[in-house]
Design goal:
Blueprint (H helix, E strand, L loop, with lengths): L1 E6 L4 H14 L3 E7 L8 H6 L5 E5 L17 E4 L6 H6 L1 H22 L4 E5 L3 H4 L1 H5 L22 H21 L2 E7 L2 E2 L8 H10 L5 E4 L4 E2 L2 E2 H13 L9 E5 L5 E2 H12 L6 E4 L14 H7 L7 H15 L4
């Protein structure tokens, strides 16, 4: 039986990844989900999922070395997703973002090399690791490949606390795996979205404003562009990469995961207005937050080459599914 560990298992990506892995492996796998529930939620979705006897949940603080005694060993795959995420938190508690993200990764790698080095380790980085390159160098290739400089644009801007942990995190994973000879993979998500994504990202924030009939309707960075990758497509890519023999070898692969259809934030808002059948009378266009990137489009040719992946859920379809979930859950916000 395949044994899989997911840290941050009660979070957005962790929950959907666990669901996908269980559907994929049927009765032939055991899932261990770890979360401290600081941001991940023990909501009804999670409680229902944990009724499956193949799934075990451990509430642990991964910044406490004693927690690792509870993990055991013998995992085929370890997905390390646990981290402080969400732009709001980068500004509110940059010191904790730095401490929690870095310390938990160091302790995870120390545990892995001693107790589980026959397994395979996946580190979830972020496109934020290279986002500062545009300001630093004036231009980045679009679509952006994996081999671009990783840059912290302004260490005094608390926004970059998260990016710094992902940048140094990639270095930790690369060099631990090389020095201790274990298999590892680095993935860089690009704007994953979908049901149960929390309330601190652009799509949920738009849906909250729509539910409250906020008018004038604020849009920050209306002309900035992004791609949005539906969560089911995203976790499928992660699973394919971890299962692929092509990602077993040194040097470690760093792989972008994202959609290919670029859209402005204003265009995104208009799509959501149409889906929800409500449109504000006035759009309050505001400047992007300091440090925000004007354009972001990942080159996913490596992902396609390695596992022949492509997005299957259109933005319209994904937004409808996301809206239906939030429509049923916004009463508590």
């Amino acid at each position: 039986m395949k044994k899989i560990l997911i840290t941050g298992g009660a979070g957005f990506i962790g929950y959907h990844l666990a669901k996908h892995l269980l559907q994929k492996c049927g009765n032939s796998c055991e899932l261990i989900l770890v979360d401290n529930l600081q941001r991940g939620k023990m909501d009804e979705d999670m409680k229902n999922f944990l009724e499956n006897k193949q799934v075990k949940f451990l509430k642990l603080d991964l910044t406490n070395q004693k927690s690792y005694r509870e993990l055991g060993r013998g995992y085929n795959h370890v997905y390390h997703l646990a981290a402080i995420n969400g732009t709001k938190f980068f500004y509110l508690m940059p010191h904790e973002t730095l401490r929690i993200n870095t310390l938990s990764l160091i302790y995870m790698l120390e545990w892995f090399k001693k107790e589980n080095n026959q397994g395979k380790f996946c580190f979830t980085s972020s496109n934020e690791a290279y986002a500062g390159g545009l300001n630093a160098f004036g231009v980045l290739p679009i679509p952006t490949p994996e081999k671009v400089p990783l840059v912290i644009d302004d260490p005094y801007n608390p926004r970059w606390s998260y990016a710094a942990t992902k940048l140094v995190g990639e270095l930790f994973v690369l060099h631990y795996a090389k020095m201790y000879n274990f298999r590892a993979l680095i993935v860089r998500p690009h704007n994953f979205y979908g049901p149960r994504a929390g309330y601190d990202h652009v799509i949920p924030e738009f849906l909250i404003r729509i539910a409250k009939r906020t008018d004038p309707f604020p849009i920050y960075g209306a002309d900035d562009t992004r791609t949005f990758c539906y969560i089911e497509d995203a976790v499928r890519a992660m699973q394919l990469l971890m299962d692929s023999k092509k990602t077993d070898d040194q040097p470690i692969e760093t792989v972008h995961i994202g959609d290919i259809n670029e859209i402005t934030i204003k265009e995104l808002a208009e799509k959501i207005f149409k889906i929800t059948d409500w449109h504000p009378k006035i759009l309050d266009i505001k400047e992007s937050p300091v440090g925000s990137v004007a354009r972001r489009l990942a080159d996913i040719s490596k992902l396609r080459r390695l596992v022949d992946w492509k997005p299957e859920v259109s933005l319209e379809s994904g937004l409808i599914r996301t809206y239906e979930w939030y429509k049923a859950h916004l009463v508590s916000v």
